[in-house]
Specification:
Elements lengths: L1 E8 L3 E10 L4 H15 L3 E5 L4 H13 L5 E4 L10
Length: 85
Amino acid sequence: MATLLIWTDDGETLTIIDSHQVEDGDQAAIDELFEDAAERNGADNGCAFDVDRHSDAVQRAYEEYAQPLRLVLVDDVEGHKPATY
């Protein structure tokens, strides 16, 4: 299983708006979930992380996407706060 996070990015804040467990490599499911979030909430991006827990995926999103662009990460799904350094 993988954790799919879907987010918006306004140039200052990366806001996680959806989180789903998906089978590894199930691109059709990932595409469908992303398209739904884009239509519903204006999702900008998403990534399926090879981790089982939402909190671990949030940490990865922070390290791989938010931090390099100096964005604040907000988790609107479960309220997880990534470890910063």
